[in-house]
Every structure is written in structure tokens, then in C-alpha cells.
Amino acid sequence: MKLYEYNVKDKKGNNVSMNEYKGKVLLIVNTATGCGFTPQYEGLQNLYDKYQKDGFVVMDFPCNQFANQAPGTEEEIHTFCKSRFGTTFPLFSKIDVNGKNEEPLYTYLKKNKSGVFGSNIKWNFTKFLVDREGHVVKRYGPTVKPEEIEKDIVSLL
Known about the structure:
alpha+beta; 18% strand; two-stranded antiparallel ribbon; 6 strands; four-stranded mixed beta sheet; Glutaredoxin
């Protein structure tokens, strides 16, 4: 399958076709609200504010697989992120990024870009950059701050 053939669920559990994002530059991130990297939401929002008009989208997939750092419902997560960091980019349903229940989109992303330690996601705030044609261009570990990715985003816009 190709990226645009996948469906994901929005924060309310509705199916969303990845085809809706065809022609956009995407930064797909597994996030958590109780993580040491949670302040990266601010950097993600700054990038979204700066480049949304050019066809850039941050896709936020909360994940509670790592030390239960994304507790709560999608609505609670959304409220926290909006009030604390002013996030306006799309929030999707909470997912698993590894294991037997992993989100199929993440199976695809990992297959196309392995990390330093193999294909599994090691922690929250792992980021995948996708070009306008749906190719997974790069994978960034959790310690890579959103502002460090800006030049790569700009090169795809």
C-alpha cells in the first residue's frame, strides 16, 4: 500500500483518509502530554503556524505506550495541548506505534524509514517527514527539536 491508501481516526474516532493530505508536506508525530519532550508541542505549533499556508501539516498521534505518558481521552489531550501550547494542528485518536495493535500507518512509516536502533519507535515525539508525493523522506528521533527540522520542511515546500 501507499501512504494515501491508509485511513486513520480523528480525535472523535471518525475515519479520515490519508488521501485528504495528498499534495501536502506532512510531519507525523507520536506524542504524549506527560513526557519530558512535551514542550516540543510549542515548536511543532510554531512550524505549523509558519508554513501551513504553504501546504504543511503536523499530524499529532497521541501514544500511551511509553511509560503511560499520554493518559486521558483524546478530548482531554486536545484540551491540554490547546490551552498549554495553543495547538491548532490536527489531533488524531490515540494509537499504538509498536506491537500487535500498532496503527497500520505506523507500520508503513517504520517500514519506509528505520531509525538508528531499527524500525521500532523507541519513545514519544519520534517524527516522520513526508513529501508532497507521499514519500517518507526522513525520520527524526525524540531528541530532535522541531526547529531543527525546519530547513528540511522548507526544502520540500
